[in-house]
Amino acid sequence: MFLIEAFVYIGTIAFAISGSLIAIKKNLDIFGVILLGLTTALAGGVIRDLMIGNIPPTNLADPQYFLVSLLASLATILFYDKIDKFEHGITFSDAIGLGVFTAVGANAAISLDYSQPFLIVAMGLVTGIGGGVLRDVFVREIPFVFRKEIYGIASIAGSIALISTYELLSPTISLYICLTVTLTIRMLAVKCKWNVPVVHKKAPVKKGTVNY
Q1: How many distinct structural domains can be found in the chain?
Q2: What is the mean pLDDT of residues 37-43?
Q3: Residue 2 falls within a domain, yes or no?
Q4: Please, which of 20, 40, 84, 131 could form a disulfide with 73 given CB 3.0 to 4.6 Å?
């Protein structure tokens, strides 16, 4: 389907830019920038395909995704000063990638005749956050999905929207809805500073003290 292919390329470019921008900000060398861009763009799809038994993974079997990621990373290196001027450039490109790959991942599960909602949501989530999680781990940052920011929840909501509309509307429209819901929730969370409550550990009471 042309729409799915377009989604994949858009998400691949967006995630490759996101990973490359972070790598540059972390002062990695050229190889590190490219590798982090490739990881961010391709790892989520690879993990998804391995989990659902799609061997070899699409991102590795079809070199065009690797080449698109490579070109996006190189372009980020060459035009970093211009790209970095866009406000919230990393956040927005990352949100686009999250929305696109959530839609593609959930749709991949459905296209292989998996009907369990939990599995469909899980595949959308893994595809959406997998590359970003590895990206953040590689640069020794706590991944977005593990922090108080609304990130994984946006992906889950998008997959649920896809499942809810897949039979009622056409698959094409449901993909658009999934992308829109995921991207909208993520960007609203950033703009409005919506956060998931953080669990704070209680400070230990020292022996010999009395609390009133």
Answers
A1: 1
A2: 93
A3: yes
A4: 20
| Residue 210 reports pLDDT greater than 70 | no
Is 212 inside a domain boundary?
Answer: no
CA proximity to 35, closest of 19, 59, 48, 57:
19
Least confident span in 5-14, 18-27, 67-76 = 5-14
Residue 92 lies in a domain: yes
Q: Which domain holds residue 123?
A: 1-192
Query: Does the pLDDT of residue 89 top 70, yes or no?
Result: no
Report in angstroms the alpha-carbon separations of 140 from 35, 151, 172, 190.
15, 18, 38, 22
**Token pair listed for 114:** 């998996």
DSSP code at position 149: B
Q: So what's the pLDDT on residue 203?
A: 64
Helix axes 152-166, 171-192, angle to 10 degrees: 150
Over residues 181-195, the mean pLDDT reads 90
What is the spatial distance between Cα 29 and Cα 9, in angstroms, rounded to a whole number?
25
Domain assignment present for residue 210? The answer is: no
> How many CB atoms are located within 10 Å of the residue 147 CB?
14
